[in-house]
Every structure is written in structure tokens, then in C-alpha cells.
From TrEMBL:
PANTHER family: ENOYL-COA HYDRATASE, MITOCHONDRIAL, ENOYL-COA HYDRATASE-RELATED. It holds the Pfam family ECH_1. SUPFAM superfamilies: ClpP/crotonase (SSF52096). This is Enoyl-CoA hydratase/isomerase family protein. Residues 254-277 are annotated as: Disordered. It comes from Streptomyces endophyticus.
Length: 277
């Protein structure tokens, strides 16, 4: 089954595995349309007993999700609409991660390219993530924009890698290669790029083929942690930095110098450090 009724993603489903391919050129920035469509698709899948595993990937081999759209502050009407339908006690960005974390199906990210900011938070929200050694990268870029992660990243990182490494990731704002991310526990495994598709497909199919009740029992025994208080602290920290003049200067300067273009995103860390100088 294939559904092409969305503008930023494509979904197909076969043999218990739903595949969601993110496709929002030029760099798969996480904007209001993608957030709305992801929420629609994932909420629709919650009660679909025929789907047991969800695999997320990207139509762009270079970028999984570049980061949250840096123009998103200009879409207040759409943001308010998303906020009105979000669960209590989470912001619109955290709502995406929490939806993924509490999905009844097993969620898997296949990471061939780069995922920064909200993209890295998306990866950490999934049950499992597998990445290509040669081409994948993960980074919480927000500090170079004068802000802190605001989509669950602080909580998901601490849970996965520990406080010391979470602080390293957030405050260096570096891009981490797949092997380092795997050694930290940020992702499950780093694989050669030419093995990634086959490995993820086999893993998804094998999980989907498990006897009835096994997936549900495993996710019940290993529930997603409750980050309610931490997410509130994170939102307060994000909001307090986003409103500062420095953040607005860095974000606008990044856009001026090529952020959200393929060329600029290839070394976004270098670009943003040059803006700060």
C-alpha cells in the first residue's frame, strides 16, 4: 500500500512494515508542514494492527532532517495551530519526539546522511537507529545559533549517552560521525553504507514477523521513560535563549550566509562559527 497524499513524506506498507520517507527539498528542514504530516501519519498508524514496525528514512542521501526550519518563527499561525493540538506540557517540537517515543509500533531510523538539531532529536526519539559509517552525522547545532535544544534533545541525549556526553554534544555543537555516535550509545550501530539498507530491512522484517503479542510485551516491559519535568525545564531554557538578540542575529546571519542550502549545510558548524566571528 502506498499513500502519496502528503507533500513532505511518502509512506508505503508491506508485510507489517511501514516505511516513511522524508522528502522536503532542499535539505529536509523540519517545518510546520512536515510536523503536521508526521503527526497525522503516526496518529493514523497507532491503531493499525497490521503495522508492527515503522522505518524512517530520507529521499535525500545527504540529509535525513537538516534541523528545524530556521524560518519557522515566521509561521506563527501554523505554529499556534500545532500548539493547540499538541499534548499538554510539551511544545510543538517536543510533541514530535514524544509521539515517536510512545508509538506502539517499533520505530527505526535508517540514517544515511546528516541529522542536526531537530533531526538529531528525531533520531534519538526512535526505538532504534542505524547509520552509515561513511556518510551519516549527528549533531545538536543549537548552541551555535545562540539557543539550546528545544525538541526533547537534552532529555533523550542524557538518557542515551549520560550527562557528561550530553553536555559535550550540546556545548561543542559538533557533528559526530556514526562510529562515535554508536560508541556513545546515541545510535544502535554504525554500518558500512552499502550494508545499511539490507541490515535495516532485515531487522524490520524479522521484528514484524514475531509471534503475536511479543512486540507489545517487550515495549510494555521496556517503556519509554517519563521526561515530563525535564521537557518543561528544556522548554524554559530554549525559550529564554531563543528570545535573546544574539540568537536572532545568529539565525538570520546563518540564513544570509547559506544555511538551509545544500552547500551551506554540508559544513553548517563552520558556517555558524563564521557568523559568530
Amino acid at each position: 500500500m502506498t499513500n502519496d497524499a502528503y507533500s513532505t513524506l511518502h509512506m508505503s506498507s508491506e508485510h507489517g512494515v511501514a516505511r516513511i520517507v522524508l522528502d522536503s527539498p532542499p535539505v529536509n528542514a523540519l517545518g510546520t508542514t512536515m510536523m503536521r504530516e508526521l503527526r497525522t501519519v503516526l496518529n493514523g498508524l497507532r491503531d493499525d494492527s497490521s503495522v508492527r514496525v515503522i522505518v524512517f528514512s530520507s529521499a535525500d542521501p545527504e540529509f535525513f532532517i537538516a534541523h528545524v526550519d530556521m524560518h519557522i518563527g515566521e509561521e506563527m499561525d501554523a505554529l499556534q495551530e500545532l500548539a493547540a493540538s499538541a499534548p499538554a506540557d510539551v511544545n510543538v517540537f517536543q510533541a514530535i519526539g514524544e509521539l515517536i517515543r510512545h508509538q506502539p509500533q517499533v520505530t527505526i531510523v535508517k540514517l544515511a546522511g546528516k541529522a542536526r538539531g531537530g533531526g538529531a532529536e528525531f533520531v534519538a526519539a526512535a526505538d532504534m537507529a542505524f547509520a552509515a559509517i561513511e556518510t551519516a552525522g549527528l549533531g545538536q547545532i543549537e548552541a551555535l545559533m545562540g539557543i539550546v535544544p528545544g525538541g526533547g534533545g537534552t532529555q533523550y541525549l542524557r538518557d542515551r549517552v549520560g550527562r557528561n556526553r550530553a553536555l559535550e554534544v550540546v556545548l561543542t555543537a559538533d557533528l559526530f560521525d556514526a562510529e562515535t555516535a554508536a560508541s556513545y550509545g546515541w545510535i544502535n550501530r554504525a554500518l558500512p553504507a552499502d550494508e545499511l539498507d539490507e541490515y535495516v530491512d532485515r531487522t524490520a522484517r524479522n521484528i514484524a514477523a514475531l509471534p503475536d503479542g511479543v512486540i507489545e510485551a517487550a515495549k510494555s516491559a521496556l517503556p519509554a521513560d517519563d521526561f515530563k519535568e525535564g521537557l518543561l525545564r528544556e522548554n524554559d531554557a530554549w525559550a529564554s535563549t531563543f528570545s535573546l538578540p544574539a540568537a536572532q542575529h545568529l539565525i538570520s546571519g546563518g540564513l544570509r550566509d547559506g544555511a538551509q542550502t545544500p552547500a551551506g549545510e554540508r559544513d553548517l558548524e563552520g558556517l555558524m562559527r563564521s557568523v559568530a566571528r
